[in-house]
Amino acid sequence: MAEYNFQRIEKHWQKEWEKSKIFKAEKDPKKTKFYALEMYPYPSGKLHMGHLRNYTIVDSLARFKRMAGYNVLYPTGYDSFGLPAEIAAIKKKGKPREITEMNIAGIKKQQKRLGWSYDWDREISSINPDYYKWDQWFFLKFLENDLAFRKKGMVNWCTGCQTVLANEQVINGLCWRCKSQVVPQLMSQWFFSVTKYADELLDSLDDLDWPDNVKKMQKNWIGRSEGTNIKFDLKDEDYSLEIFTTRCDTVYGVTFMVMAAEHPWCKKWVKGTKYEEDYDKFYEEVIQQDKFDRMAEDADKKGVFLGKYAINPMTGDEVPIYAANFVVYEYGSGAVMAVPAHDQRDFEFAKKFDIPIKVVIQPFDGYILKPEKMTRAFVDDGKMANSAEFNGMENRTAIKQIQEKLKEIDKGGPTVNYYLRDWLVSRQRYWGCPIPIIYCEDCGTVPVPYEDLPVIHPTDVDFQAEGNPLASSESFMKTKCPKCGKDAKRETDTMDTFVDSSWYFFKFTSPEDGDLPYRKKDIEYWAPVDQYIGGIEHAILHLLYARFFTKATRDLGLHKIDEPFSSLLTQGMINMFHPYCENCERFLPKSYDKDGNWTGDYDPEKEICLECKQPYILKSYKMSKSLGNTVSPDTIYSQYGADTARFYILSGADPKKSFDYTEKSVKSTYDRIIHLWKIFHKKPEKTRTTEEKIDDYILYHLNNTIKEVKDDYNKINLRILINKILKFQEIVENYVIDITPREDIYEKCLETLLLIYSPIIPFICEELWHNTLHKKGFISQAAYPECDESYISEEIKKKWTAFENLLTDIDNIADLLGEDTEEVHIIISDNWKYDLLEKFWNLMDKEVPFANYMKEIMKNEKFRKYAKDIKSFINKFSKNPYRHQLLFQDPKEEFAFFTDNINLLEREAGKKVILEKEADSKIKKKKYALPCKPALFFK
Fold first, then answer.
1. Residues 736, 740, 746: CA angle, nearest 5 degrees
2. Among 363, 515, 649, 879, whose Cα sits 20 to 30 Å from the Cα of 209?
3. What angle do CA 157, 161, 166 make, to 5 degrees?
4. How many CB atoms are located within 10 Å of the residue 573 CB?
C-alpha cells in the first residue's frame, strides 16, 4: 500500500489546479450563477485560526456549488490599507507598502497551501492605485450628488492612533483597533451622507436572509425614533437651541435644559465667565467616562450651570441650562429639555441641584401629585395639567395637538430622529486612500479632476513626525489649483479604510480597468453576493457601510442592485483552554515567549498564580494574541496536512457556533484521513455480480446519503453532513469486511464517498480519484452524484428506519446488561397493537388530550380486554409520540421485512437472531412488543 504523503499530494494538486485554472469564473447565461465570498483579509500578519474557519467554510460551499452545476464566482483580495502597517513602518523605520506587500505574499502562500479554490485572475488589493483611484472617483461622485460634504464638528479623536474615528469605531470609550482612549475634539472633517439612506437601510433589513442578531444590531444603530423638534430661544442671543423629544406632552413641565459637556456651545458660553473654571473641570472628568456608562439609569447624575437661559416656547418661562454627564453629543442635537416631574434622570438631577419640579401629567386614578412630596418621577400616562388649553386631555392624545401648535408658532413640529450619524471618513494618517481635494486661496475647495486620478501617496514622508504624515511631504502638499492654476495645497487627510471594503465585492465581478469602477453587465450578472461569511464584529461597521455604498451607487446609475449580500452567515469563535485564576478573576496574560516557553504570572511547575498564590484552572476563551492562547494554521498543516486542517475546522461545530481547539482532536482528525486512505488501498479479496438482500441496505444508504448530504451542503450544515459521510463510510467498510461485496455497488460507493468528501478534503480526494479509482479529469470539476429516488421512497425509508432503530435498541440494551450475549430474540407485536397505534394517531390528529385517550379507546369493545396494557402504552406514547411511528402497515409486513434481512441483522448486531411473533412466543417479555418496536430478550 502506498504511503500517505500529504506534502507531496498537496503540493502536486495545488500546482495542477493553478496550472489548469479550473476555478476561473466566466459569465454563462445558460447557468445559474452562485457568488460565494468571505470578508477579505487585512494583511497585518499571517492568517489565524479564525480565517482558517471562515475561508474553509466558504471554500467548501463554493466547491460543492460547482459540483451541483452552478457557475461559481469565488474570488479573493486584500483589504490592504490601514494603520497597523503604518505603525509597523514607524517602528521599523520602513515603508508601509513594503510591509503590506510582504504580508500579502505570506497570506497568499497560506491560501494556496490550504487549497482554497479562488479565481486568482480576479485578485485585488486596495493599495493598488488602479483600485483606490475608484475610491477617489466615488468620493468625487458623492460630492457632486450631495453625498459627501465637509463640516466642522465634534469628532472622536483616538489618542493612540492620532486620528479621527467614526462613532461605530468607538467601543466603550476606546478605539476599536488600538484600545486607546478616545476624546472629543472639534475639527473640520469629510463626511458621507449615510443618514439620507437611513429609512431604506432600516426598512430593507427585514427582506434579508441574515442572522436576526445582526439585523437587530443594525436596527438599533440606525435607531429611528418618531417625535417632535422644539426650538428654545436663548436669552440674550439671536439663535435658538433645537431639541428632539418623544414626549412633547411634557413641554409645559420643562424647568431646565441639559447640554452634553462636549457640545461646542458650552465652552463658548462659559469662556471668560465665572462659570468657566467649574465647566473645564467637569469637562475633563466627563470625557474620561464611557458614553454608555454615562447614560446608564443608575449612574450618578453630575453637572454644572453654564450661566445661560433658554425660553420655553409654550410658556415663555426662562429655564437654566446645565452641562450634564447623562447627555451625549452624538445623539440628536446633544441637548435635551428636562422635565423632572416625568423623567427619573431629570428628577434625580433636579433634586441634587435644587431645581423646581412642575407636574404636568396627573394619574388617571384621581390621585393628585404634589412636587414637594414626590420621591420619584411619574412616568405613566395620565391627564394633562398645568398645560394651558391642553388641561384635562389624555397626554397621548395631546401630543399631536401640541405638535400642531408648535408648528403654528414656528417653534417646531413632528419629525423623525435617528441615532445614526453621517459617516465621518477623514483620517489623519498616511496609509489610506488620499482624499482628492485641493484647497486654493482664491477658488476655495476644488475637486481633483477625474483625469488626474489617482492621487498617489508621496514617498518623502516623515513617519517619525507627530500629526498627519502627509502634511510632512512638500512634494505632496504643494500643487496647482485645477481652476485658476495658482499655487494651492492638497487635502492631507486620507479616507477611512472601510471605504475600500464597501464596494470590493462589486469590483470582483469586473476586475479589469475601464472607464467605470465596474461594468454594469458584469455586476448585474454576478451580484449580489449569494453567500457572504464573516465575523459578527462587522455587523455595524462594514456591513452597514457596504449596504449604504450599494444603494448610493445604484442611485448613481452604476447598477440596479439594492442589497450587496443576499445571505449572511457569521461564523462562531475558536476557543482554547487557558490558565485562569478564579481568585483574581482574570486570565493569565500572554503566556508564551517566542520559543514557546511560559512567561508572565504562570509557574508551570507549581501551577499557581504568582499574584495570589492560588492554583490556576483551565478555562475556555476565544483565541487571543493578548493572552497567547493561539495556534497558527501553519502548525496544523505543516504537521498534519491541509486536509486535516480543513476537516478539523469544519467538523468541530456547526459553523455558527464556537468550539474549543485541542491538539488531541486535530490528531484524531489526522487519523481519520489516514483511515480513509487505507480504505481505498485495501481492495476486497473477491467481489460478486449476483444480487443479495444486503445490497438493498447499501443502496438505500448510498442514495440517502447522497440526498441528505446535498441538502446539508446547501444549508451549510457542515458538521452534520460530515457525520453522515462518516456513518456511510463505516457502512461501506463493513460491506467489505463481513461479506463479499457486489462489484458495481462497491465501486459506486467508493466513487460517491470521494465525491461527497471532496469539498471538505479536496487534496486527498483528488489523489484517490486519479491514482486509485483511475478517473479522468479533476474531481474538483466532477458533478455531484445523482440520487436514485427509487431506493429511498417513503415506504423504503420507513422500513430501514425501523431496522436501524432496532439495531440501536439492541446495542443500548446489550451495553446496559454489561455482559456478553450471543443471542437475541426479536418479538414482533400482535395485530391489535397496530390497530391501537393507528387509533392513537387519529386522536393526535384530532388534538384529543392524552388524559382522554383511555376513555375514547375503551369505546371499542375489542380493546377492553387489553385495558391494563393499553394504559401502560398510553403513558409511553404521551411521553414521546414520535418514537411510535407506523413504519409498517401491519405486523405481517414487519415480520416479513426482518425475516428477509435476518442475515444483515445478525451481521450488524453481532449476535444470533431469533425472530418470533408475539402470539407464538413463550417469552414473558413479549408483552412489551410494540408496533415497529419489537420486544427484545437476550441470552
1. 55
2. 649
3. 45
4. 20
Whether the model clears a pTM of 0.90, i.e. scores above it, the answer is: no
Q: Are 516 and 503 in contact (CB under 8 A)?
A: no
**C-beta separation of 534 from 496 below 8 A:** no
> Considering the domain 674-794, what is its CATH architecture?
Orthogonal Bundle (1.10)
Gap between the Cα atoms of 746 and 5, Å rounded: 26
Q: What is the mean pLDDT of the chain?
A: 92
Give residue 360's pLDDT: 98
Confidence band, pLDDT 50/70/90 cuts, at residue 466: low
Radius of gyration from C-alpha coordinates of the chain: 36
C-alpha 887 chain-centroid distance? 41
Q: Which of 51, 90, 415 is nearest to 248 (CA)?
A: 415
- Report residue 752 as a C-alpha cell: 460517491
CB atoms within 10 A of CB 28: 10
Tell which wins on pLDDT, 925 or 545. 545
Distance CA 413, CA 409 (A): 10
Q: Is-contact 740 686, C-beta < 8 A? A: yes
Burial of 622 (0-12, 13-18, 19+ CB in 10 A): middle
Strands, DSSP E only, in 381-493?
Answer: 383-384, 412-418, 423-424, 426-427, 437-440, 444-447, 478-480, 487-490
Do the beta carbons of residue 139 and residue 502 sit within 8 Å?
A: no
Predicted local distance difference test score (pLDDT) of residue 181: 80
Say if residues 501 and 40 touch (Cβ distance below 8 Å).
Answer: yes
Give the domain 21-127+502-570 fold: Rossmann fold (3.40.50)
- The domain defined by 224-418 folds into Isoleucyl-tRNA Synthetase; domain 2 (3.90.740)
DSSP conformational letter for 68: T
What cell numbers appear for 116 in the block? 482554497
Give the residues across from 93 on adjacent strands. Answer: none
Lowest average pLDDT, out of 139-153, 448-462, 614-628, 744-758, goes to 614-628
Mind listing the pLDDT tens digit for each residue in 892-921? 999 999 999 999 899 888 899 999 999 999
* Mean pLDDT, range 491-495, rounded to an integer: 95
Determine the 3-state secondary structure of 195 from DSSP: helix
What CA–CA distance (Å, rounded) separates 241 from 264?
13
- Name the H helices within 145-275: 198-203, 212-222, 264-270
Contact status, residue 447 vs residue 143, Cβ threshold 8 Å = yes
CA-CA distance, 159 to 843, in Å (whole number)?
Answer: 71
**Of all residues in the chain, what percent are helix, strand and coil, respectively (each to 5)?**
45, 20, 35
Distances in whole angstroms, Cα of residue 716 to Cα of each of 316, 489, 533, 578, 719: 64, 53, 11, 30, 9
Tens of pLDDT, residue by residue over 702-722, are: 999 999 999 999 999 999 999
User: Could you give the CA distance from residue 10 to residue 114 in angstroms, rounded to a whole number?
Assistant: 9
Q: Beta partners for 574?
A: 659
Nearest Cα neighbor of 479 from 465, 493, 461, 491 is: 491
**Cell numbers found for residue 435:** 482624499
User: Grid coordinates in use for 383?
Assistant: 391627564
Identify the band that residue 116 occupies on the pLDDT scale cut at 50, 70 and 90. Answer: very high
Please report the pLDDT score of residue 292 as a whole number. 58
Residue 79: name the closest of 476, 491, 515, 541 by CA.
541
3-state secondary structure of 672: helix
Please tell me the predicted confidence (pLDDT) of residue 178: 80
CA atoms of 838 and 840, how far apart (whole Å): 5
Domain ranges for the chain, please list them.
Answer: 21-127+502-570, 136-198+423-495, 224-418, 574-644+651-662, 674-794, 802-938
In the β-sheet with 487-490, what is the strand arrangement from edge to edge? 444-447, 437-440, 487-490, 478-480
Instruction: Give the pLDDT mean for 233-259.
Output: 96
State the sign of the Cα–Cα–Cα–Cα dihedral 877, 878, 883, 885.
positive
